[in-house]
Structure formats: C-alpha cells, structure tokens
Amino acid sequence: MHWTLRTATSEYVVGLFGETGSPQALALEYWGAAGGATGPWPKPAIRYSYETPADLAPLEYASNGTRHVHRSELLVEHDDGLSGAVWTYVSHEQSATELAVLFRDDTGRLELVQHVLVRPDSDVVERWVDVRNVSTDHEVRLGRVLSAAWSVHAPDGAVLHYPAGSWSHEFGPEAVPLRQGVLQIGSRYGVTGHLHAPAMTVTVPGRADAFGVQLAWSGSWTIAAEADPGGLLRVSAGIDDETTTVRLTPGRTFTTPRSWGVWSPDGEWGVARAWHRHQRLVNPRATDPYHRPIVYNSWFATRFDLRADHQLELARTAAELGVEAFVIDDGWFGTRSSDRSGLGDWTVRRDAFPDGLLPLATAVTELGMRFGLWVELEGVNLDSDLYRAHPDWVYRVGDRPLVTMRHQTVLNLGLTAVRSHLAGVLRRLLTELPITYLKWDLNRPITDPGPADSEWSVAHTEGYYGLLRLLRDEFPHVTVEACAGGGGRVDTAVAELADVVWTSDETGPRDRLVIQDGFLRAFGAHLMSGWVTDLPGSRFPEPVSDGFRLVTSMAGVLGFGADLGTWDAARRKAAADAVALYKELRPVLLTGDVHVHGSPRSGEYALEYVTPQRSVKLVWAASDADVIVTDREGITP
Ligand code: DGJ
Fold first, then answer.
1. Keyword Heme: yes or no (predicted)?
2. Are residues 486 and 532 in the same domain?
3. Segments of the chain scoring below 50 in pLDDT
C-alpha cells in the first residue's frame, strides 16, 4: 500500500512497511519534486549487523518494541510491566489533502492514528499523531510521545542548520555536519526558549535542495536528528520527553502538536521562503496590515519611570512621525516602580497615572494612533497582592524554596482557577480601556513544576493558547505581540495565534541585523517586530547612520523605541520620511519572497523582497543602508 500527497510543487509518498504478521508501520518512500523518481528507498550504503529491518527503514513514526537500535518517537510502558508497542495496520482514510492511517498494537489496548496534511498552495507537509487507550482497565504510560520523524537519505552525512543563541542573541544561525550519532536541540523549561527555536534545516553535501522541520509548539520541546551509518538521517520533533510523561488512562486520547516538514529545491533559503508562505497561510490575520501597525514602545525610553505627561509628550512626537500604535510597556500597573513588586496586579499604577490610563489612552486615540499595553500574565512578583492572596497558584515543587528570577515566579496555567482569573483580567482591561494592542511577555523560565504533575508543560502551553484564542475570538481588533524576554517565544504555533513577535531585546543595529538574518531562516518578516532605538549593539557596537537603523527595522514590522524627546527636527524628519516610505512598501516587505545576498557580518548584505509586481532591496554597506525599489515592467504596483 502506498499513499501520495501532492503539495504545491512537491510530492510526499509513504507506504506500509512490514508484512502482515510482522511489525507494521508507515515508511517514507519519496519526498521531493512532483513527478520525480519514486523508486524504493535506497538500500543502506554499507552492510552491517545488529540493526533490525525496522531500524534500517525510514519509518515515519517508530515505537520502542518495534525499533530496537535507533531512536523511537514513542515510548510505551503498560501497567503490567510490558513495554513497547508492535503495530498492525487497521485502516486508512485519504482525501486529496489528508491521510489518516490507523494502527492497533499487539495488546489490543492502544490505537495509533498517523495524520498527514498538505495544502494545494503550500509545500509544507503537516504531521501529527493521536495515541488512544482503548482498554477499559489498563493505564499506559508514554515516556515520550513525539509528533513525527522526517527521513532524509544522506549516505555521506548531512549538515544541520538551526537557530542557536541566548537572551539578546537569539537565532544565531548554526550549521553542524553530522555523519553518525544524534544532535538534539530543545527547551525543557516550559517556554519555547532563547537557546533555540523549534526549527531545523537539513542540507546534504553535493545536493542543492534542502529539507526543513519545525514544531508548532510553545512549551518544552525537542528536535533530534539521528544519522545512522547506513545513510539514513531521521529528524524527529515533539514535546520534550525529559519533562513530560503522558498517562493514558482508559479511554483517553493524546493528540500531539503538529510538526511541519518541507522540501525545497532551493536550499536553506528556499526552505525559509516555504516556511514564510505557510506561516502566512495558517494565520488568517497574517497579511492584514491592521495587525502589523508601526508601534512606538516606550520601554527603552522610560523603563519603570512612567509619568502620564511624559508619555503623552512621547506620543505626540510618535504621531508626528506617522506611528500607528503607542504602547506602554512594563510598569503601568500595581506598585510596579521596579521589577521587585506589583507583577500580577493588573490595576493602574496611581503614582504614575493619578487619573488612570483613560485620559492618556483617549489622547493617544485623538492623535490618530491606537493605544496598547504590555502584560506578563503568567508572571507574579512575590511582593504582589495576587501572590499574597493565592500563593498556591504558582508552580512549586513540594515545600522546596521557590526559585525566583527577576524577583518573580510563574502562575500555573494548568489550573482552571488561574486560567479563569487571567481571562477575567483580559476581559476587564480590554473593555475598561480602548486597548487595541497587547504585548504579552514572560520574563523567566518555569523552574518549579510539581513533581507529580508530569504534563505541566503541556497544560501550561494549552492554557496559553486558550487565552490567545480568547483574545482572537472576543477581541479580534486587538493585535497581539508575543514576547518572552525578547525572542523567547517564537515558534510556528505562536505565528498562528499571535500577530507579531518581539524578536530580541538587542536593538543595536549591527547585532540586530545578525539576529534578523537568523530569524528569517525560519520565520517570516510579517512576524518580526523591530524598533529603532539609539542603543549601541552589545557585540558589534561600531556606530552606524540613522539610515542603517531605520532600514534594519524596516526589514520586518517597523517600530520605534528611542527616546524621541532627544531627537532634533532633522532626525524626526528623516524618521517620518522612512515611515512614509515603509507604509508604501509594507505589502511587499511583509508578503514578498525573501532572497538574501551576502552575510550581515561580511560588510555587504542585502535582503530582497519580491512580489510579482515589485521588488524591494534593502542594502547595508559599511555603516549605511539604502532602499532600492524596482517595479516590474508593464505591471502596475
Ligand atoms: C522583556 C521584553 O523583551 C522587553 O521588551 C520589555 O518588555 C521588558 N521585558 C519589560 O520587563
């Protein structure tokens, strides 16, 4: 049995591995250009012993008990001590865009459904599984339950490209050759994280094409690439198995998040363009300019030193520049005059705004801009009314001392009481004030989950998604900027449920260019929020022109974060001109196909955004930058 799924330009072919009576599974047969040679999967480049047939096959999803030598995506342990699963094909359903294949295990207690989904206008293949306990009296423990494995034939090894960095240096492009062994990236602290985003691209020396893998998940996650000596490289992706154990009680089904895979004939940047297109497709708001306003955010200008009259002054200047949304960051609530107190108390800070926020919000609206606020809904200072009232709402391991960072801890979003409290906070804030922009931050990892709660990261992530969905359903006019201490919450699930992401706390332009270059390898420009500030870069502090800074922020969703009160008339005029130009070019910059020339550290670098009508080239050279617009002949832009 074979099943073929056609994407926009490629083909994904899977078949049934294993005869009746022996372990069965889905195996990849072909992944490449539509109409390409779909012969059998190449035999291992060398002969070797000990591996079983299932270990040598490009299995789409493997379990312990079926695969013995190499990694499996699913680890099964029954409550009577039996471990592993041996599957038999039961049935399948297929349409032009979807395949679902059902397997049953040899105990008759478990069912596995493998899903494959494609869309005619994208080259991305989405895959996930359901694991169902159909027994009435046995609990089954899943020590690992990943979403999918993606196979690539790489007889001489492959190069793995992935985002690697840290706070303020996110998305640094890393490239590591792998001939044999395992390379694993991930997060085990409940948030997507700064170290890596869940994305990996595979290139094979001597070949021009490339394969990409992503995971649409914002909690703890893992992506592991394993290369065997016979030339099979499998990249598996899913929820982190170190911090998550799923207990399948009788009747329960666990559905994994989706993993995205893509093949591109055009190498790493071809994969990137396919990701961008798919991210725009799965988010119905992705191409809506309303949800990508030019923001002024006052964080870098004022930090916690918030005063109503000063914010209004900044707002007036921002409006002169052509800014579309004025956003007050951290510090507007509770007793939050520093990061030591008030987090969790979402009422207006009276020493900063004695008359409340309504007069400022109204003035901002009258200036022709939208009004926005920052929140860190999951965060809570120990010195806050919320923590004093509900110390049992935060993560805590038994009675061990809490690990605090930035004087705060994290609310357990797995608790219904916490979710309804935060839903209430959102509903109140968004109805009391004319807020149309919300920046949702999280400034620390989750470190203290309860020991008995082995699904805390899943529950937390679902709680986060639930609140994002509430925003979308009940407040569709509110734009959401996702953030976790800069770019710590950037993944394709966030790309679907939020509008933009705060890319990094590093706004120094040379550093930023490097971060953005890495970001764009996995995520679209329509998500990449970037403010123009006056701050020097922490790694590459050499000065640059204002034009360099402006063009750097124009590469995605333009914004401003400088203390505009210190800008003279000439700087304001230059910024206003850049804003006007950006507004004209925005459709191309946010939806065009991105092509990259040079490297941001080589001295000459350009990003070219191409639509059928127009191409916009942003060029950086030495300490200056330029914008070159080319209209296609005969086509009116
Ligand atoms: C981290 C964010 O990345 C910043 O932009 C800012 O919102 C601070 N948190 C505020 O605490």
1. no
2. yes
3. none
